[in-house]
Fold:
Amino acid sequence: MEKQRKRILMTALLMMSTFGAFAQGNGQGGIQEATQMVTSYFDPATKLVYAIGAVVGLIGGVKVYNKFSSGDPDTSKTAASWFGACIFLIVAATILRSFFL
Structure:
């Protein structure tokens, strides 16, 4: 009776230890799938940031034109700030893409 009890206990322990080994097998596959999902978002996100930069550029152009037409003396400062914002958006999107892809 004691031998059979030990045999059952050893079999149970052996089965429990192998279940853990089988459960860990797909860890690398999960990491690769997550990496692929994250990198697949960069193309649409980069295009979205470029589109936002274009809209900001158009709005900035209209604002600068209105200031220039009204004779405002700080037109060049406004133009530089809007132009800087557009350049920042384009450069930020390009640098982020180059870091992660």
Notes: The chain has a mean pLDDT of 81.
